[in-house]
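Exam revision sheet. Question 4 asks you to relate a sequence to its structure. Input first:
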Amino acid sequence: MNEATGVRDGRTRYFWGWYVVTGAFLIVAVNYGARYSFGVFVQPMVAEYGWSRSVISAGMSIQVLAYGFGGIFAGRLADRIAPRWIITAGAGLMAAGLLLTALIREPWQFYVTYGVFSGFGAACMGVVVCNSSVGKWFIRKRGLAIGISSVGIGVGTMATVPLAGFIVKIYGWQMAFVCIAACVLIIGVGLSQWLMGKTKPEDYGLRPDGGGAGREAYASDPLPIDVAYAPPSLRPILGSSPFWIMAICYSLAVMSEMSVMVHLIAYALDQRIDKVAAASSLGIIGMASIPGRFFFGWLSDRIGDAKYASALGFLLMAAGIFLLLKTTSVATLFAYALLFGFGYGSMSALMPFLLADRFGRHILGASYGVLVFFVTAIGGGAGPVITGYIYDLTGSYTDAWLLNLAVLVIVSFLILTLKKR
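Answer key, structure tokens:
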């Protein structure tokens, strides 16, 4: 029996792909829980330093830009080496950035520590590496597997944001950054070394989904076997219209998502909603995204083209923004969070699915890394700054939410023009 692969007498005792799913789930949970708790720190930092909200928001935008650039590098590496080394390096860099953020005194220091260091670190332990690694171990169950691993984003957000809010309230925002940094380092390094040490099933004599060694195991693979082992090239992908349609749609959707994640708590406080309830709304978005990721992953395995599931997710996010515009009470805020969160759960599950479905799993890491660069660097980087600027200009978030509503409706229809490979 080969202990490395779990193969005994030609039979698979267990399929390592599900261990990869478990590792990816837990690693993205601590990663995105740390990142999406940023809204908790906005007002305490404004109160301590007197910086404007647009200055504070720029820190998150720089982190998103660094995340996007880092995703290209991490994605290329994920097609070549075991993910545990990429994730370990990322966890160390992200933890260092968060820890140093507790010591900042000037905006430029904040931009370097939180923006650059934690951004690049987060890219190396984010969905590009984790979900592309999961996608390489599955074909028939790819939607379900990526959906399960993506649930970690929701679980991490739901658990970390209220906890960060509690620590900020009792011990201060600096101690909250220290605690989050410790969690990132311990969980990121430990789990990556334990569960993310393998590349793809073929390297260990296995087949996707735990199938046998015959060619029939590849019946549903979008690429023939000989192409699946060819050196990956991004040139055909970057020259195709489906890639750019995905880049535009998801960039605009992430612009809306990051606008909300950074400014939601401040908006709720402006509406005279209790601080704990305001912080809990981000946790509810994470909670609602959990069944959303399961649902959209499951749906993608069962419909002819996952673009219809993507359009549905965008429409649900738009409906949530419409409710946010009407928010004057905790009940309406929580209703918004549930609807928006469920729709938002579609994005991380469907991006790698659509890429693998159209371009193949052999280059999923690199293609996903490039897509995430455009999505996060353009959409995610612009969203918080644009929203902060609109607030500083008008004294209200209303125009920013109307902009987000419009772009989500547009991309709901634009994604339907995506052609099947």
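Marking note for examiners. Confidence is low (pLDDT under 50) at residues 1-12, 213-220, 222-231.
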